[in-house]
What does this fold into?
Amino acid sequence: MNKDVGPYQVIDLAPGRRIWINTLELSWQPHTIYGLLEVDVTVPRRIMADHKARTGEALSFAGFLTLCLGRAVDEDKSLQAYRKGGKHLMLFDDVNVGLMIEHQVGEKKALMGHVVRAANRKTFREIHDEIRRVQSEPVPPNRGMPNWFRSVMLLPWPLSKLAMALLRMNTRRDPTVAVSTAGTVALSSVGLFGGGHSGWGLSSTLNTLGLVVGSIAWKPAVVEGRVEPREILNLTVTFDHDIVDGGPATRLVRRLVELIESGYGLGETDE
It folds into this structure.
């Protein structure tokens, strides 16, 4: 061991982090399309702020994005197709959005995977209440994963590599194995940028379609011929180019931006 490196320490890699690393290695190497977007979220953010001022309730922005993503994908289910073997695609009717939900555990915060099932058929209030309910519940030992999956992901090397190779082959033969735990589409909030700084996030995903939520910052924008400050969300959209072509991807992005910028579904919070 080289001694000329200065002081250092060795700490345990948390089980949750080991599971996440091994889970990412399950994916085949996709040919990914990345779209870096700037989305004007002034309207939905204003609606949420007004609602909180009146009621004291903080509405879930992740829930709002989940709603918009579910509605946009519902208009073209091919965007959440998965390869089944070498000759077939599996298309799912329900848009199941996989996301990480933060829990308060004492003085610390912990992330737990959760899938909002049939998001394309739920209202914003239903999605919001589901997320808040999951946040308020104690973090289960398996953190929302099937026990068998968590056990496999924690196997020591080289057994973990062998298990992942077998799982990778199995998920290609039967995509429902991965979709049941990761959702048909993914929503990730990197949380790396803030405090008025602007930036996009890039993240690996097991899914054909994924959103990575970056920062929200005030920027000048042209609205009805006038330049005014607007709240701009940096949003990354990822597609597996093996399955999704440029045309459907472009239409999805256009529709998603329309839904987000209009504050789609937020009016029902006052009903």
Q: What stands out?
A: The longest strand covers residues 209-223.
